[in-house]
Design a protein that fits this description.
This protein has about 350 residues and is α/β, with parallel strands linked by helices. It is built from 9 helices and 15 strands. The structure holds flavin-adenine dinucleotide.
């Protein structure tokens, strides 16, 4: 083995790629701008990744005790509009716990993880960019917080509102993660978790906000992110990118973390060939790009076509009417975004 792989970004894509490369004996260094453990804006339910992918990456044990989440209830502005069961259970685990475990896994396997090491986005042979969504002027804000004692009506709840949506997922230690994606409203009042409360109430989800107010908030878990766009991130053709840094699927799918793992797994063979000197860097990079586009094209197109339906009043009317008639094709729609 000759080439060391350097990864910019120690989220799920970067860390799982590093673990998978170490399993193949490839030298790897991950540079992470932040440090572990830390909370991240994320719905914290993982849906649609095959166990074989996790095994290939050497990270299946990190998810072994994740909660199995099966039942789902959809609400629109407080009204229950649909209930269903996922064909395969989703996994519920906090990013606080998962990212730390993955970092430890990389280190146990002999990889290097450098924390508080912010990299500049620059192409170079052997460099994989896994630093997540591209910061840019965007129309979204993501907010999340953990609650104790928040009684759930199903393992997963989805709440549609006039300004976005919020998902509730059970994670470890009796916590419920509440995570919302909203259109930015610069006039919105509130700080910390108060902002989440304000966005929910403004979108007609006051009943959910009331349930949250009656539960015990872990204020340290609150986090927010803004300044991003969904879809292809346009990191530049000269960069080798995986995970959200390549494409960010709309969060309602609950598939972004699975895509991060899947894109890492797709990159393993080409990177191994480059590292052994059997493939030049340009060809390795082109193959990683091609494999991701082929694997993710359909679900990205479907998710981006469905997303506006959730965000437009007319779209929500249609969803509610179809659901009321018992005709919502929940499983076929789910399989389209997997
Ligand atoms: C509101 C919301 C809800 C979501 N809900 C879900 C859900 O329920 N289920 C699901 O599967 N997905 C969900 N997602 C998507 C999911 O969070 C992402 O798809 C997933 O985190 C992508 O992993 P990643 O490793 O590519 O990026 P990230 O997890 O974002 O990791 C990128 C890492 O790179 C680091 N970094 C950034 N810049 C630099 C730099 N310059 N140098 C070094 N390091 C850097 C960051 O600190 C971070 O640790 C949601 C997203 C949002 C916004």
């Amino acid at each position: 083995m000759s080439g060391t792989v350097t990864i910019g970004g120690g989220g799920l894509a970067g860390l799982s790629l590093a673990a998978g490369l170490r399993l193949r004996g490839i030298a790897v260094t991950v540079h992470e701008a932040g440090s572990y453990p830390r909370h991240r804006v994320c719905g914290e339910f993982i849906s649609g990744v095959e166990r074989a992918t996790l095994v290939q990456l050497g990270i299946a044990d990190a998810l072994a005790d994740a909660l199995a989440l099966r039942s789902v209830v959809w609400f629109r502005e407080g009204r229950r509009i649909h209930e269903g069961v996922l064909p395969e259970p989703a996994m519920g685990i906090s990013r606080h716990r998962l990212d730390l475990r993955l970092k430890e896994r990389v280190m146990d396997l002999g990889g290097t993880v450098v924390e508080r090491s912010r990299q500049v986005r620059e192409p170079a042979d052997g460099v994989v960019w896994a630093a997540g969504r591209l910061p840019r002027r965007g129309s979204w804000i993501g907010l999340k917080a953990h609650y104790h004692g928040l009684a759930m009506e199903a393992d997963l709840e989805m709440h549609l509102g006039a300004n976005g949506y919020a998902g509730l997922a059970q994670v470890e230690d009796g916590r419920v993660n509440v995570c919302g994606l909203f259109r930015v409203d610069r006039a919105m009042a509130g700080q910390g978790s108060g902002l989440l409360d304000s966005y929910l109430r403004a979108g007609g989800n006051g009943a959910l906000a009331g349930r949250m107010a009656a539960a015990a908030l872990d204020e340290g878990s609150f986090c927010a992110v803004a300044g991003f766009e969904l879809g292809r991130q346009q990191a530049g053709p000269e960069l080798c990118v995986i995970g959200d840094a390549e494409s960010m699927i709309p969060p309602f799918t609950g598939n972004g973390m699975s895509m991060a793992f899947q894109s890492a797994a797709l990159a393993l063979d080409p990177l191994e060939r480059w590292s052994c000197g059997r493939q030049p860097w340009d060809a390795c990079m082109a193959e990683i790009r091609k494999l991701q586009r082929r694997r993710f094209r359909r679900r990205m197109v479907a998710a981006q076509a469905l997303h506006p339906l959730l965000l437009r009043r007319g779209g929500r009317d249609v969803i509610e009417s179809i659901a009321a008639a018992g005709l919502l094709p929940f499983r076929p729609l789910l399989s389209l975004v997997r």
